[in-house]
Design brief:
Helix content: 40-55%
Shape: elongated
Radius of gyration: 24 Å
Strand content: 5-15%
Number of helices: 7
Order of helices and strands: EHEHEHHEEHHH
Largest sheet: 5 strands, mixed
Oligomer: single chain
Strand order of the largest sheet: 2-1-3-4-5
């Protein structure tokens, strides 16, 4: 794609993946896949990528600082390419910051969104609203699943809780130690810190 002056469009690439301990070292590969597809998209559209910004293991909903995202905002690029819009923003407050720089956002998995136009801003707000809903709905499902697993005595962590085996059954020796410590706490002879220690 070329503008009226036949100058090649220059864009930055942004890639992000949330921290997922189940992925381990594969997180870097997931970002690599995003960047590969972004670069392929740019090549086919004849867009030059001048810079890649990457936030690895960075949530877009936690409120924590995303260093590459902040650096990109400071640079105020005219064009941004992302794998999918929710890799860039998932909450309204971050979208409003993106809107301030009037960029056009290209998505590998969707249509471009021109944030300099009223219609583009409306589309971006709708996309973020959907992403926020999906994130909150996923969290609700996960909480319900965890509650069900807890009721069923199923443990799904990497470190088992003291007093239980990984299958949820009692570890008799540890369970007895915990019972004794709790009896002492109720009598006022033990502190919570002492029990943990």
């Amino acid at each position: 794609e070329y503008d009226g002056a036949m100058t090649k469009i220059q864009a930055v690439a942004y890639a992000r993946i949330s921290q997922d301990k189940r992925l381990g070292d594969q997180e870097g590969l997931a970002v690599e896949r995003q960047l590969h597809e972004i670069n392929e998209y740019a090549r086919k559209a004849d867009i030059e990528i001048t810079r890649e910004y990457v936030d690895n293991s960075a949530s877009a909903t936690s409120g924590k600082l995303r260093p590459a995202f902040e650096e990109m905002l400071h640079a105020r690029p005219e064009y941004i390419i992302v794998w999918d819009y929710d890799r860039l923003v998932r909450v309204s407050k971050d979208l409003e910051r993106i809107l301030e720089i009037d960029s056009t956002v290209y998505q590998v998995k969707g249509s471009p969104v021109d944030l300099a136009t009223t219609q583009g801003k409306m589309m971006a707000r709708m996309l973020v609203s959907i992403a926020t809903y999906e994130g909150e709905h996923k969290a609700e499902r996960q909480k319900a699943k965890n509650a069900q697993l807890a009721r069923d005595g199923v443990y799904r962590g990497t470190q088992r809780p003291m007093g239980n085996n990984k299958d949820g059954s009692l570890h008799e020796h540890e369970a007895e130690v915990l019972r004794r410590e709790i009896r002492e706490y109720v009598k006022g002879k033990q502190t919570l810190y002492g029990i943990v220690k």
